Amino acid sequence: MTAGWVFAVVAGSCAALSSTFMKLVSDATFNSSVTTAGNNAGTFLEGILYPHTVGVLINIAFIFVTQSLMWFYFSKSLVYCDSALEATVINTACNFSVSALLGSVLFGEELTLQWCFGLSLILAGVLLIVRQTTLPNMEKPELKKE
């Protein structure tokens, strides 16, 4: 495993965390608006100053932080991987896998046998792509120095 792979895995994990924080924000906002609308809870400001608003703002901040980290590490993976394709598919596969695990653990989402089979096909495809881009007989292009 190269440094590029590590950076791509970290980037994919950060993207999955960002999705998790977004789900927490959207669930909290949806639940709040339904409760507020259902109770006809007075003014617009009362709906905004709901007790969970601080939690929503913290989650939004975490979305920006994890997205920034994802782009930072993805950029590093592009530098250290043999190709942009390699960095992208490793990042995507890791994002997909970690998102599923977080969804199952945090939100009780069901991972069916069909879903696990689909993930195994995706990971097998990723391995084939990465293997194809890192064959020893491939020559790397020389960078022109000006």
From TrEMBL:
Q: Does the keyword Membrane apply?
A: yes
Sorted alphabetically, the keyword list is: Membrane, Transmembrane, Transmembrane helix
| Lineage: superkingdom | Eukaryota
Report the transmembrane regions from the record. Answer: 49-72, 84-106, 112-130
PANTHER family the record matches: TRANSMEMBRANE PROTEIN 42 (PTHR31965:SF1)
Protein name listed in UniProt: EamA domain-containing protein
